[in-house]
Amino acid sequence: MSDRIDYGNLMHRAMRSLIQEVLEDVQENGLPGAHHFFITFDTTHPDAKLADWLRERYPSEMTVVMQHWYDNLEVTDKGFSVSLNFGDAPEALVVPYDAILTFVDPSVEFGLRFETPEEEDEEDEDAPSPDDSSTKQAEVVSLDTFRK
């Protein structure tokens, strides 16, 4: 057993589970109302699959839009695959949940952002140690604070 609770990993798993559940509903019922998604993912992830020309054009990350035209959406426990239209040419993509960097539904001002390990390490370096006397007490913050 570890000597600390890894809240970051637990949150990421919960957020990816939420994305899976949303996409499963879209797979079964289609996009409701004005909902649509901007999904940014890491194109260097070993399990991400995309056409060579897309990988050349987006060597590190890519944002796709699921809105008016998408086809063959298949959702699994590891990720999802979908065909999207790129300049009147349908292309199949496979996106593992672990490759997702952001998931946004602007129709309802909802978004998730996943920290990369490098960003988390940088934050850890800046964090005060637990026995630092200048450490602030924990605060409970309403989620409404972050809504527009």
Write a structural description.
With 148 residues, the chain is an alpha+beta fold. It has three helices and seven strands. It has helices at 7-29, 52-57, 117-126; strands at 37-42, 61-66, 70-75, 79-85, 90-96, 100-105, 110-113. The strands form two sheets. A four-stranded antiparallel sheet has the order 2-1-6-7, covered by helices on one side. A hairpin with a 3-residue loop joins strand 3 and strand 4 (79-85). The longest helix has 23 residues, at 7-29. The radius of gyration is 18 Å and the shape is globular. Mean pLDDT is 81; it is low at 128-142.
Key phrases:
single chain, 148 residues, globular, 3 helices, four-stranded antiparallel sheet
Topology:
Elements: H1 7-29, E1 37-42, H2 52-57, E2 61-66, E3 70-75, E4 79-85, E5 90-96, E6 100-105, E7 110-113, H3 117-126
Antiparallel strand pairs: 1-2, 1-6, 3-4, 4-5, 6-7
Provide the gyration radius in Å.
Answer: 18 Å
Hey, roughly how much beta strand do the residues contain?
A: 25-35%
Structural class: alpha+beta
Shape: globular
Strand tally, please? 7
The strands making up the biggest β-sheet line up spatially as 2-1-6-7
| pLDDT averaged over residues | 81
Q: Considering DSSP H and I runs of 4 or more, what fraction of the residues is helical?
A: 25-40%
H and E string = HEHEEEEEEH
